[in-house]
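Hi V.,

You were right to ask for the full record rather than a summary. Here it is.
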Amino acid sequence: MFWRSATFTFAAVAALTLGIGTTVAVFTVVNAVLLRPAAFPDPDRLVMFMNATPQGPFPAASPAKFAHWTRLTEVIQDAAAFRTNAVNYTGGEVPEQLRAGQVSADYFRLLGAPILRGRTFTAEEDRPGGDRVLVLSHGLWTRRFGGDPAIIGRSLSINGEPYLVVGIIGPGFSVADFEVGPPPELWIPFQLDPNSRDQGHYFVAAARLRQGVMLAQARARLQASENEFRTAFPNALPPQQGFTVTPIREALVSSVRSTLWLLLGAVSFVLLIACANVANLLLVRAAARKREIAIRAAIGAGRGRLVRQLLTESVVLSLVGGGLGLLLGVIGIRALLSINTAGLPRIGQDGSLAALDWRVAAFALLVSIATGLLFGLVPALHATRASLSTALKESGRSGGTIRHTRARSLLVVGEVALAIVLLIGAALLIRTSLALGAVNPGFDPHNILTMRMSFGGPRFRTAASANQVVRDGVERLRLLPGVESASAACCVPLQGGYGLPFTIVGRPLENSPFHGGGGWVTASPGYFEVFKIPIKRGRGLNDGDDGAAPPVVVINEAMARQYWKDGDPLSDRLVIGRGIMREFADEPARQIVGVVGDSRDSGLNANPQPRMFIPQAQVPDAANALNLRITPLAWVVRTRVEPHSMISTVQEQLRQATGLPVADVRTMEEVVSRSTSRERFNMFLMTVFGAAALLLAAIGIFGLMAYSVEQRRREIGVRLALGAAASQIRFMVLSQGLRLTLVGVAFGVASAFGLTRTMASLLFGVAARDPLVFTTIPLLLALVAIVAAWFPAGRATRVDPLTALRTE
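Predicted structure:
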């Protein structure tokens, strides 16, 4: 039967494939991020240590906090600290930068890492001054060492120091849940001091709840321990902050949960519109099958039997559309994520974990069956409700009672209303993306090349030695043809950084050990020139700011506005970080010598925050060692030519100057693009949903008007025979379509007016109830409706009165 009605079958399957495919695509991401269990033993008992604040909890740990948490053994066990960094493997012919996990001894037991050969770290090796040992991942073992089992017991040169290989982790171990980028290829001991007083937050910590301990009990115990911590470390924990634990999966996805559920809700509107379209097609088909259905009833088929038959046909259609939609959805979302992962957690590198599994397949099957029942029920009930004698007297070509027309009209109104909601949502996100693109970041990202280099090891433990290598590298880069300026820094705008508190020398303190806090950036001369950040007052960093010169600092305008509302910052000195970390115990008082323009370092949608710039040559040795151990140094180069063309030349010059490899090579324009990747991801999906909804709504209006014209051929023929003008017939058809559209638009605008409030957190530079969007989108849909109804209206004007009057 479907094969004989090929046009109907193709139209129905195409609509269902589009609706189910888009739904499956979004669910594939929701499944990977929100639903997939953590790939660790007993994942429901894994918790992340969090800092509780009035703004919400966030995961960050300091050595002092971690030591405090590990003592709460009555509620937790296997507490582990971990972070990912870059190290240099210098034992081969060509140095290579590797991703390394710096972890405490219980890390492998906490995450259930399978040990293929050897062992992991001992508690003694994880103490300060412990032996230098490492554990290899299975991938690095096979790639770099050919799977040689004799690697156990051998020494490898990591950051210029010998590390003994003590174990190899099995191939099934994955920490992709914790990593947005490539996972670690080896692990070394953290060697945190259990008696540390350091309050620097540069890693995260997790643990396992003890058997029988509930989450609420663990949270209550951590909350009760806050006073103990405040007693041991006065002023380290503000009064409004505290401790808590969060299930590890919730901690990883808390920033994207609401967005993904919103997208899944939005795509369900596309599915409903597709259902309405197919239901309309089935109503037309049922009208043409009235004689067939009447004959089946006449020879004994009951209404229930007929309804089951028609629903079975609907479900078969839906299953075919669902199968194709499953294929389309999985392939489509993988293609999108390979281009833009939007910084989503738990989806692996290039979206590799957003894949087809039993949950996605089951979801597609359930949606297909539910969809088939949903769009098939109303047509089935209508088709079996007709009078038997009346149906037998009518020809198979007649069809369409007033009841059928009313049902189809209601379905079209629903399609238009849902399309309005999706189009308004898409328009708001498009305006958000345009607003982000128009934001002045405070720096010029064009023609800037960035790359990272690990400065770990004894060679760079003093600021003087690190600065000498930086100076040599920068001088080499500046001499290259095509290079305009060059510098090196700990942090690149829009890629994060450090925050430290400060005191202003000579200014009284009030109820706090510090006057404030801000971003902390170490940089070599030329940093502001590379990024073209303007000097507003005083001066920037220059070659005279070396270790023998008086300590200086440059601040940004946001800091000057906040802490010197009526004063002159250039007349004051700052003490940064002293008292919060032992590495800053020798931090001197620094003279503020300049004020630079603001840059949006935390994101284009975030206002500039206070920021302090320190000469690389003037960082205290202990702080320098910590800084370079935590984050690889960033080389930044402004070129006069297209920056990609300089990559190999710049890399070679840096290798000659330092003897070290570089990694994470990208242009500053790519950095800016990555910073807005999630907004562009949301915009793209919502635009696809809106376009699909607009297309389906237009098809629905066109189908209804075409069907209406066909059913009213006799009436139209009479009107034309009595002298009606073609323009009057066209207006009659167009006005019918426009009336339905306006009713749908009214319902849609009212719904969108309430629903768009849920999108407020996704918007930037545009109000959730933006007048331009709420005016333009209804007009757009009205225009599309007129176009969709125009063709059936034109067909109506070409009806031959004689032919129409002779029909039946």
